[in-house]
Amino acid sequence: MKHIFKHIDQNLDSRLEQLCEWLRIESVSGDPAHAEDCRTAARWLVDRLAEAGMQKAELVETGGHPAVYAEWLGAPGKPTVLLYGHYDVQPAEKSDGWSTEPFEPVIQGDLMLGRGTADDKGQVHAHLAAVESVLKVRGSLPVNVKFIVEGEEEGGSEHTEALIRDNGERLACDVVVISDSPMFGEGYPSLCVGLRGLAYGEVVVDGPAGDLHSGSFGGGVANPANVLARMLAKLHDDDGKVAIPGFYDDVVELTGEQREALAALPFDKAEFLRTTGSPEVAGERGYTTLERIWARPCCDINGLRSGYIEEGAKTIVPRRASAKVSCRLVADQSPDRVMDQLERFFKEVAPPEVKVSFIRHHTGRAYLGDTSAPAFVSARKALRLAFDADAVEIREGGSIPIVATFAEVLHAPCVLMGFGLPDQNIHGPNENLRVSNYHRGTRAIAALFVELAG
Amino acid sequence: MKHIFKHIDQNLDSRLEQLCEWLRIESVSGDPAHAEDCRTAARWLVDRLAEAGMQKAELVETGGHPAVYAEWLGAPGKPTVLLYGHYDVQPAEKSDGWSTEPFEPVIQGDLMLGRGTADDKGQVHAHLAAVESVLKVRGSLPVNVKFIVEGEEEGGSEHTEALIRDNGERLACDVVVISDSPMFGEGYPSLCVGLRGLAYGEVVVDGPAGDLHSGSFGGGVANPANVLARMLAKLHDDDGKVAIPGFYDDVVELTGEQREALAALPFDKAEFLRTTGSPEVAGERGYTTLERIWARPCCDINGLRSGYIEEGAKTIVPRRASAKVSCRLVADQSPDRVMDQLERFFKEVAPPEVKVSFIRHHTGRAYLGDTSAPAFVSARKALRLAFDADAVEIREGGSIPIVATFAEVLHAPCVLMGFGLPDQNIHGPNENLRVSNYHRGTRAIAALFVELAG
Quick check: is B437 in a domain? Predict the structure, then answer.
């Protein structure tokens, strides 16, 4: 490892330069005007992977922005690692509040600023750098390595989902490694062992055929907005628990050990309130904030609309009221089952004086890693070596649907080890990655190959 | 009366022609392009009032569209009747769904079609016709008569309110008569003896400083939309009663006699459901639909807004949720007091994890006529004479704020006797007035003068 780490250390500067070259390509997947930039960014990566010594590196057409596939399969009998990431980025304009040009990356001390530094080019580049250093120093990798780097993550990975499902054999592996989630904080190398899933629907309550004059008819017909409020109020009980029948049936409860580990993390409530701007924390009674946002399911209204919503007043009984409602799920909740429960709930709590319909928007499965699996043991050792600190187990309240797809199609554990800090500002202005964490991340991936080889 | 009625009968055709002349003037008060038309319509009325024999008839400048004032005060010792109406109309285009040109009034059998036929030129013209016939036949009126006809009713009577307050002495009277409300139905001459008031506010619930990612933060902070729904759900109890503390304190309950009278009206539930398009009637338990919309206060959400309200899905915890909430009031509820109650209610039911603010939009007092007053007795007799049917007492769920102003400033009862039918379509396409009801209305006003003189 010593020689590999030394090679990584010595090549840091030139690699940062190379990464900046990639960051300057505006691979904004959501903007059709940048379609060619996306392809250029993909080709750039194919070339670098080939230069790094991968046996195969190629563009894969998906129907949307191309993906990049690469493989080095020279370690028969050894585990196969699939490295997943994405080269596409969110849009960015300096006028959004950036202190520098978002597509002119700059390094200020330890801070690397620019769109894509953390999400996710910088972290994919750490994977590339690790592979290259190990190959340069040892002439071979201790494990088999495959890369799948997509260009549509910011738009929902639509074609990538299909790509994975259609290429189960080609992508077959023993472990998937992803660096696209934040660390708990500086000095806390982190393994993200859980992601929440999602069931996102919309309830629509229809009353009168058109908006009615609230003077002439108010009090004599069901007001869809009044009705909807009463229906939505029943989503939770007074303890902040979701009151949808059956909702908690399949929830994997936190073990005493897991709760202790979460409690041991230095959660800073004041910082949390500063970040959210909320007057106070809130949620399911009997759980800490970290438990609530990482390991407990919840139900949020994401949008509410009815009647007159402009300035001032209009005296109507609205004809319709609707709410977008989504549940964040944890293992082993089935998104489809929760969607069924949600629909049944709304239909059951609605009074007969209105018509209720339910729209299913989308779902995503929760993910909970089996942290006793050998891959997690190896990852912990690798992080310890690279960061000189014990890894902490964290979770992420959001969803990375592709992780559930990997788990389902490839039947392999997913190790989520990201190297950005909580202030990395992905999707916002001044997105950043610390140079030191890029560096340690590269070491960690290299160390992981060695550890996984046993 | 016989001679007066005969004169009214004989002059019907020429009067309809005259009315059509007035209807052709596009006195749309809300459109600055029609300001001159409004003035023309006012002058037209001044001239006709003078021709009819009023002692004084003049334009009154208001700061907005002018009002028309006229008086005939030749009956010393007799009561003074103030006839109120408005000459301004709502905008109308044939393309809105009219079967004829809205400002080219036509008479098809008994149906007079055109903007302003019912609201309110046609009914003001019936007042004018009654005065003229009585003066032509008798040479004098049996009571003193004043007209105040404004040109800003469709825009809220802003300047008229001030005009009334500033001219209490000039407008002094024993009874105000207004024909600007519908009859219960064909063959049901109606006295509208109650109007509901209004207290219209808006509650705003603020949580996070900005919209949050519902994955990263959902379940850990109070969601303003979830909170607002729970707050709004508490506005009513399970019996459909408004649950705001103190809300019913000042409500004048319906007497047994009043309930019997309302129950005796041939309310057509199927027709009501067709009109509203609601699947079913609903409201405060223990009351009929007519009681609910006419004589009971209620609380309606008029608008709801939070978070993402476009098509599709966005996974956010919204930073804010707001609801426009208005209460329809009955005598003797104080709009200001209800507004206070509403604000206190929202502040008290809100949890500490959000900030709640309350905006006061506007208020209007309810009106309940003392139907035992002599003016109502006279009005009933006059309607009986004119329509050959007993008058029914109805109420109106909406507010006519000017009525409360009259009651407050002039301390006179307001007799609301309108001659349009429920299908008169004021503000909509194909506004209409039945010729027969215009005719009977003219008779009723003339008869009222005689009855009031005693």
Answer: yes
How confident is the model over A51-77, as a mean pLDDT? Answer: 97
Instruction: Determine, yes or no, domain membership for B266.
Output: no
What is the dihedral sign for C-alpha B1, B50, B157, B37? Answer: positive
- Chain A environment of B241 (Cβ under 8 Å): none
List b or e across B295-309, with b for residues whose CB sees 16 or more CB atoms inside 10 angstroms: bbbbbbbbbbbbbbb
Share of chain B above pLDDT 70, in %: 100
CA distances, A41 to each of A37, A189, A279, A433 (Å): 6, 29, 43, 19
What's the mean pLDDT in B364-387? 94
| Separation in Å, CA of A282 to nearest CA in chain B | 5
Q: What is the CATH number of the domain that holds A338?
A: 3.30.70.360
Among B408, B405, B197, B365, smallest CA distance to B294 is for B197
> What is the reported pTM?
0.89
| B277/A301 touch (CB, cutoff 8 Å), yes or no | no
Q: For residue B310, which amino acid is it? A: E
Question: What is the domain extent for residue A242?
Answer: 197-251+297-363
Q: What would the pLDDT profile of A333-366 be if each residue is shown by its tens digit?
A: 999 999 999 999 999 999 999 999 999 998 989 9
**For chain B, how many structural domains are there in total?**
2
Domain co-membership, A100 together with A189 = yes
DSSP secondary structure of A192-257: EEEE-EEEEEEEEEE-SSS-EEHHHHTTTB--HHHHHHHHHHTTB-TTS-B-STTTTTT--PPPHH
* ipTM of the complex as predicted: 0.90
Contact B307/A307, CB-based, under 8 Å? Answer: no
Residues 296-325 of B with CB under 8 A from A: 296-309, 312-319, 321, 323-324
